[in-house]
Write a structure and sequence with these properties.
- By secondary structure, this protein is mainly alpha-helical.
- The protein has one domain.
- The longest helix is centred in the N-terminal third of the chain and has 9 residues.
- The two termini are 14 Å apart.
- One of its GO terms (molecular function) is DNA-directed RNA polymerase activity.
- Its cofactor is Zn(2+).
- Its EC number is 2.7.7.6.
- It is an enzyme of class 2 (transferase).
């Protein structure tokens, strides 16, 4: 699905760092290190990144659009 703008639990804006997270993740950096550097410290916000499906640079939304 499309990455959410805000954390579902606390309401912090998390979408502003998603592009940086996605870029650095494709460069084979550790998700823990990336989130620490980006200042995402709350567990609920970190969960939003960890649970978002991202394989080979493609999101779930990209797969769904193919069958439209």
């Amino acid at each position: 699905m499309i990455f959410p703008i805000r954390c579902f639990s606390c309401g912090n804006v998390i979408s502003e760092v998603y592009d940086e997270y996605k870029t650095r993740l494709s460069n084979v950096e550790s998700p823990e290190e990336i989130l620490n550097d980006l200042g995402v410290t709350k567990y609920c916000c970190r969960r939003m990144f960890a649970s978002h499906r991202l394989e080979n640079g493609k999101e779930l939304f990209d797969d769904i659009v193919e069958y439209r």
